[in-house]
Amino acid sequence: MSIRVLVADDHAAVRAGIVMILDGADDIEVAGEAADGEEAVAMARELRPDVVLMDVRMPRLDGISATRELAGECDVLILTTFDVDEYVFGALRAGAAGFLLKNTDADTLVEAVRVVARGDGLISPSVTRRLISAFASRPAQREPDELARLTPREREVLACVARGLSNAEIARELDMAEATTKTHVSRLLNKLGLKSRVQAAIYYPS
Predict the structure, then answer these.
(1) What is the rounded distance in angstroms from the CA atom of residue 93 to the CA atom of residue 161?
(2) Domain HTH luxR-type: where (predicted)?
(3) I want to staple 90 with a disulfide (CB 3.0 to 4.6 A). Which of 23, 64, 96, 161 is the partner?
(4) What is the CATH code for 3-133?
């Protein structure tokens, strides 16, 4: 089945370019286009796309606020021109499943949509090092028993997520079905009050 995508960007020419790229992939279908954050939220709830490609700076409701409203309802992949920490961290805290810059080439964009649709997380390589440095320098803020609510299997899955493994890779490493892996990831996110596997990777103690 095709991956259904909603493209949200306030610039019509940019939307058209993104749509053209996505239409070139046999396994992706553009379900709709939104010109601002409020429209993106409303259309996402109406159309139920697999992935929302969300710009950050948009009128009426910005992309990060829109992502926060859609957290838990659909997977959001932020696609923006602005490589600034405020947007990177804001998007991930809001529950975005991925963060890419608009200078990403067409093949990478298409593959990013596939990655997010599979339930995996993705961050632009240009911001990954800053992200790791920022969170590695944070003081510990968790109680030691905070992970106790997870089952032993869920802890194993969380450790794999923290290593950046995809669902398919986790399934192979832990010798279980990929569908079972997705279930474990979903349950551990719910138990820990997290919105995405990217947040889970940041959460996991080193």
Answers:
(1) 17
(2) 143-206
(3) 64
(4) 3.40.50.2300
